[in-house]
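ugh ok fine here u go
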Amino acid sequence: MSAKVKKIVLAYSGGLDTSIILKWLQEAYQADVVAYIADVGQGEELEEARVKALKTGAVEAIVGDLKEEFVRDFVFPAMRANAMYEGNYLLGTSVARPIIAKGMIEALRATGADAVSHGATGKGNDQVRFELTAMAMEPGVRIIAPWRDPLWTLNSREKMVAYAQEHGIPVPVTKAKPYSSDRNLLHISFEGGILEDPWNEPPDDMFVLSTSPEKAPDTATYVEVDFEQGTPVAVNGEKLGPVALLTKLNALGGANGVGRMDMVENRFVGMKSRGVYETPGGTILYAAHRAVESLTMDREVMLQRDLLSPKIAQLIYNGFWYSPEMDALMTYVDKSQENVTGTARVKLYKGTCTVVGRKAEKTLYDTKISTFEEDEGAYNQADATGFIRLNALRLRVRNKAGFFKA
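structure:
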């Protein structure tokens, strides 16, 4: 029989679910609970959550300011890897979970707790992301996942509200949202409720970070982003830190309706799920970064990095940020970015983000070679004859052997 749990660190948001779980953990395990509130830029009043946690019975409530680390060490590396899950999703929720779990483990060590807990359900990806990170950092840690716990009986909103009222836990009186959402500095996601029918168009009043493309300004906005070794460092010539830079791009992109995306994705646990995302700043960054790469990255280096990108995205989505394979792949990404220094200019207009210019001091783009005008001998076009014939050799042999079918 496992030892009795004395103190639990709970990933706490202040919402209905985690407020109930905080009280439930105290009752079910007769343990002290430390509320860990991770600030990854969700735009909420975290002091209010901290006070609520203490009123609900937490012995301690810790607010971890993770914003700078989140953007610098998680968002930017994913962008440098051009990581997009299933070709579309810029991993806004996925990339935030490992840093939140990291903060939980640090809180566990600081408070002397012997277990961690979270509010993720047994159907989603977040349970995997939280727990893989926790076990990678603290192999012997005990993890309590209420939604998978045999003691848990609050398996409906009606039961949860009744439990909250019974224990004096405030239930927010707000306009009902027929979907759930999760926000951080990179994006906001929406799922569930009316979105569970993939035929339903998302209501326009659902969106938070962006205006609708139809209502966006009739005049385009031009934005320049500077990169140093693949990392964004300035917007429109103004040097900015990671948080300020992403915040500025979110505002510029959102005002022009940029960054909305609607997809049906494959969860790690095996089911399909419909998600709607707003990632205005991230959409600009990915486009601008790719534009600078087009000038500065060698063709074969880019090809290899691009072959790795889907796998890196899958690892992030599935919760393997702290894995040996992730370390190895990101080492290649870091090497590939050494020369990715330059500036991209993008045009934002009614939901679109279009690259319209790029420049770099050290560029592989040579106008003397690529020009359609007189190239002053920089390129001998006759060399292409032998190049083409050698590449066609195996095709000609295949034809002569009778393998070719028109």
